[in-house]
Specification:
The structure is a homotetramer of 386-residue chains. Chain A has 386 residues and is an alpha+beta fold. Chain A has two domains: 4-152, Up-down Bundle (Four Helix Bundle (Hemerythrin (Met), subunit A)), CATH 1.20.120; 176-381, paralog of FGE (formylglycine-generating enzyme). In chain A, 33% of the residues lie in helices and 13% in strands. Chains A, B, C, D: Pathway: Amino-acid biosynthesis; ergothioneine biosynthesis.
């Protein structure tokens, strides 16, 4: 375990960063929920705060007084163990508690926790706090993707700020890295923090394979579009093709064709698409279809984990061909904490890597992110294998 | 026509009242749209302002500069004639323009109009301005019903203020007023302001009928509930019964049964239901079912108009049995103004009267309000006939 | 009341006609339900038979044995009073009872009723039998419209037979009939059979109006289409315009544009549209839009009833501007029979007249048919007024 | 390849068996489609016939005349390559072609193929024919599950026949079979017929595991129900729990609780549930929840394939924990044949084994069946692992 003063520092820094990320927002931006997958920023603030209150303060701080007895109801997410769940759809209808009140809640809980940490605490509290911090870091990423969705779907296309770079230059010339057939070990060694879904380090047998040293670029994807990629069912799964037709998909999320040029909404506002930057905001269905068109495939999560030390990664969450399943001997933790990962292990795909909005030190080579196959508001990208 | 200085006063008073109504709101309350029929307060402010800009300033003030070129898109409602319509569902996703910006818009347009009115203006402008003022008064009513919906559906049940009386005492002892058979004249005489749907004053033949001098009370409606009114299809239209079953209806909107007592959310917060106050927030389906159960019926809009001078009215919009149809020789006005009323003349019921949130001098004996048969977030009530 | 031997004859003829109408069908045609509004022919046969069994034999024939105890469940329609309703949507999933079994049911019930009628029967039975016969005549009409829908939506477009004429020649040269202002009497005099919704003969005041001596033709409607009638919201109700956009409406039901010519599916198979024949299979929304475009309007049901003796009618059910509402002093009959009409008196429009598939002697000048505003699989047409 | 006379015999036997399976049906049973996943028996007959016509006769028999030019449209399934697809939902609305006509089609195509096989044919034709035969065998299984659904959802609960045994006795006493850690080979060796999704025989590394020698029984599953298994979210995936709540799931498909006893609909009619027979008609969600409740898990498809020679199987398709994904080096075949398997490799689970309605010699240890996680009209069961 890490030293308690380091943990306290990490806690304070994490809380501070959440506030920093919200600095460019108007009060109104905290409230809306333009689609079901997006949560209002206010909710992220309340929810990460509630997590500390519910799992640490309420049970481990003597004489702790709840900030507000209804907030557990308002800011719980999917924890069935703890009372009645808020219907997700309703998050965007909550004008109250006000943003000011939520910040009061944040500061109250932060102070109570700082107070608790002034004295030595049990290993259990340390573990729960570390869990809470990583939970908050995870929500920082969602906060940024949700802010982008809220601003990027507003008819006025307001910018977030002038400095956030979402499309960093990718220096590598595309090349293939080859990995030999063999038995490899997969999963976390349990030294330092990780989630339960990374544990159960185990052997897998891999055939020889090659993986690209670089991500698919916007320019390469434009070739796919212009070759009629969205119009030919041959490249798509049956479900993917239904999705293309029903949603009338023709391009990545946030892209706009204005006259004959491609533009995209970025946190810096509307910009011309940079052909050499790595592709972003595509669904698994699109990632798969692109790979089919190119005559290649997506890597499995095991291939990615084995090969990852040989290439740069971290600007895009990378879709893999692997379904999100438990590792051998996976056991979900008892109680509410156990609901964190295990119950989502069906009908989702694993993503590996990290992104330009991932909190510092939040990802690692064994980290397993996961989303449904049609979602694309995260900073998702594609690395090919063959 | 009314004198221009009176008109200017009316304009300024109306604009001021809209701001007064919003005083108790937090910024967050302006933004949300908890259901499709409700519009965010911010939208009402922007829309009523846009109406003056679009129909008066833009065409009748020389060298007028639009406040913002995208606002027409954002704040238009159902006017197909004017550009692309905003999908109604999206109103609650608009965090921008901010509330502060919308108030800037209000003040800009108000000042521009005041400037225009400093000199003599044409009859056409006078007419359009009067139209805009009445349009705003109409939206003041919707603003209040929507604010109630937003606060009354928030899990914290915040109050609007402490003084707003929604359930005034009804002094009349219930009695029947009888009107003799005969030919009566219906509709507006076109002296003073009215909407186009009231014009075409015409004769109707009425049979002898009786109408109640008072509104159905909460207490009477509780009798209906307790007699199993929501469980017996015999009292309902087929469509009404479907609605009861699908929506699992058991009581008026805003009512809560807590232990064994009935409470309702009011603008003053949660209160015990007052049995002697007039019933509110029921749909046409419920009004009809109640009348069936009671062995009576709802009046037609013609019966109501003929009898109305013999009873007190104005706290509830009263459901009638009449479908919303054009009067003989009704002609809709050309262009966008013509979209105001005519295109809704199908599958809606006429309501007569006015309510505790109706703007002063906004209703009159010939006023025809109308809603779909399942809606109940307005201040709707019941007066029986036989 | 009519003499019992006449009644018996009428009963036998009606039953026989139902079988005759089904002659051209394959067994498979009896079973399917291609849309919610259409019932499988087998269901019409079972339902009309069940009506006699339920309301007459079961209660009025001593020692009557039900043909099959589950048939009441299978063949009931919307009678809430009598047991659990079959969800309408399920009618097309019932492969059993087989068609042969349903014909056994028909013959069993017919014979039992004939037996009952061999002796003198009470006035109540006479009334119920007359009700049952008219109920069956009504279903004969629906049977034909549903058969047309089943065949006309089959990709092989099979014909019903070679002789059924749906588009009879209309001899009248279009002209206007004028009716003077005055008080008129409306409704049935209660001499001979009628439905409860026609009773309550009462006075109405009508303004002077004109009504066309002839129906709108296919050719006239083609002019509306070609003038862009389906593309201009100005002619439509707001609900109608939503319907046009959502359902992508561009022409009457059963019409197909093949190369540059208009064709329609008829019971005789696919044919070229006859420009001089009366328009058919349009919704109220379309009827209204056409009238708007033409600068005229639809008649009210009262205007139609007053004027009808001055023109020919009976090939199309004619949409009126009147909503389907109770006449003054309308009382619905107690029990299941009372569900026949009253509970549909909301959000529907009245149609007057009759059609090429209406059973002989089934309609009359006071008959009030009614449908929702978006339906068009009936033989609906348009007569203009001004 | 198998000898041509054997192939011809196999073809004739397979065609004959399809007809035999349909013997107990009424004509009406061939037509209906009570839910989207079920196809009308008539469609299965037409579709398997069309497969031979489209892929063999049309391209490989000189001067072949299509039986009917519209049948390709009517009886195609999901083959995007070949013309416009029939919307699946519509299959149950097709009263025409009649059943008699479909049998004419069957006999015409069978005879044409027999004629073709009288002379020596190319390897390609042999391959396509074998494909067509296995395609038909697969549809024989679906035909039986769809017939069960049609009869088992009819309110009269008609039996299929008296002799079909769906719940055979399972002789084994439950015990665990243990397999050691190691590298194993998975997939088909390409000797004899198999589908493309079984090819690409490859190595996998397996940890030591145990698998049950017997299937979960009805009695064991009743324990799960009575322990509140359907009421405790802890046993379910998040998606599974949503499914339970939305669909109000409380028991396997076809089960009915009558008074205090469990019954199920079988092809022999309604019977009391036999506690010792293997559980059937449960979804993956239920299989997973049962395993969670029991403290065990489902095997992976690799574990199943490695262990299968040590236990009896073949009465139930057995849910595995494996997602349906391509084997390494999987390539889908070009053209329409390539649509058979590859495009479904997302969001489905693998089932291994076979069932009481699987055609003889149609399954094998490497056979990979697959369905969505909520489906249960197939003969699905559960074998536990740990």
């Amino acid at each position: 375990m890490i030293a308690i003063n380091t943990l306290q520092t990490l806690f304070i820094e994490t809380r501070a960063r959440t506030e920093t990320l919200c600095k460019p927002l108007e009060i109104e931006d905290y409230v809306v929920q333009p689609c079901l997958d997006v949560s209002p920023p206010k909710w992220h603030l309340g929810h990460t705060t509630w997590f500390y209150e519910e799992f640490i303060l309420k049970h481990h701080k003597p004489n702790y007084t709840l900030f507000h007895e209804d907030f557990a109801f308002v800011f719980n997410s999917y924890y069935e163990t703890i009372g009645k769940r808020v219907v997700r759809n309703d998050r965007g209808n909550l004008s109250r508690p006000s943003v000011a009140k939520v910040y009061d809640y944040i500061h109250y809980v932060t102070n109570e926790l700082k107070e608790l940490l002034e004295n030595e605490v049990s290993k259990e509290i340390e573990h729960l706090l570390l869990m809470g911090i990583h939970h908050e870091k995870q929500h920082q990423e969602l906060l940024m993707t949700d802010i982008k969705y809220i601003l990027g779907n507003n008819p006025l296309l307001p910018k977030y700020n002038d400095s956030f770079v979402e499309y960093p230059i990718q220096k590598e010339k595309q090349d293939w890295i080859t990995i030999e057939e063999g038995i490899y070990e997969i999963g976390h060694t349990n030294q330092g923090f990780c989630y339960d879904n990374e544990l159960g380090r185990h052997k897998v047998f891999l055939n020889k394979f090659s993986i690209s040293n670089s991500l698919v670029t916007n320019g390469e994807y434009i070739n796919f579009i212009e070759a009629g990629g969205y119009k030919d069912f041959n490249f798509w799964h049956a479900d993917g093709w239904e999705w293309v037709k029903q949603e009338k998909m023709t391009q990545p999320m946030y892209w706009h064709k204005i006259e004959n040029d491609w533009y995209y909404y970025t946190l810096q506002g509307l910009k011309k698409v940079d052909a050499s930057a790595p592709l972003c905001h595509i669904s698994y269905f699109e990632a798969f279809a692109y790979a089919q068109w190119k005559g290649h495939r997506l890597p499995t999560e095991f291939e990615w984990e084995v090969a990852q030390e040989k290439f740069n990664w971290g600007t895009r969450w990378e879709w893999t061909e692997s379904s999100y399943l438990p590792y051998p001997n996976y056991k979900k933790a008892p109680g509410a904490i156990g609901e964190y990962n295990g119950k989502f292990m069906v009908n989702q795909k694993v993503l590996r890597g990290g992104s330009v909005v991932t909190a510092e030190k939040h990802t690692r080579p064994t980290y397993r992110n996961f989303f449904q196959t049609n979602l694309r508001w995260q900073y998702t990208g594609v690395r090919l294998a063959k």
